[in-house]
Amino acid sequence: MAVSFKRVLYHPITKIILGITICFSLLVGVQNLISKPLFYSFIKNKNIADPIIHSISFLVLVFGYFYLFRFYDKREIKELSITQLPKEMFGGFSLGFFTISLSVFILYLLGYYQFLSISTENYSLKLFMTLVVAALIEDLFHRGLILRELENWLGTHIAVAVVMLIETWHIFNPNATLFSFFVSLCWGFTMSMLFVYTKRVWLPFFFHLGWNFAQPFYGSNLTGLDDMGRIITSEFEGPVLFTGGAIGIEDSILTVSFLLSIGIFLYYRANKEGKIIKRKRLIYESKT
Fold it and tell me: Domain for residue 72, yes or no?
């Protein structure tokens, strides 16, 4: 009975369920029961209070995950290792921002993008910190937990395929189209390869952050949302296939092509460097 219980307890699916449930519950609990009541009580301006609350939520989620799996797995939490953090932070953010920038530049050359003005009045630290926490939740759970556990259990190819399907939840965002389904699959593939290549969450996280920041920066909707602020006031006029339509520039065929190219390149490098796990490894057997 004890052996069977340990098999269930240390099964990858159990770890995924418990990891998401405990970490997310901790995040919501601290935010709603401690952070918000505390800071809203003496900081009336939410544009000031919310960035502080989001910063605390970020730390709660990272440290909650770290100590949970340090206790649960009794291992070094390599997916949160900060040994390469400066390089992955700068490189990831720059690559994500550059990918969107390249699409915008091509649209400009084609006459589909027009710059009107620039101002920081319509963008705030509150909006940016919202993107930070949202990106961390997705990347920590999708890449650091689900992809990592499934990769060690079933191999890289199956794990990436599963995460690609999970990413299709984005089609429920406002203004999503059939093409958005394909975009979500490409997003899941490339974000997975960013993790597979480094085995850490920081490169995909900062790529995600640069990607999400660049869209309102250039005046685009963000995944169908038109209330995420903007720094550059602009106009996107042209075929939806190129501009992304109401979804935003991330749904442009140009952006998706660049995104997919990054994923394919990283897959090639990961395969060449022996980072693709091809055999099933029951990581919970040692616990029994």
Answer: no
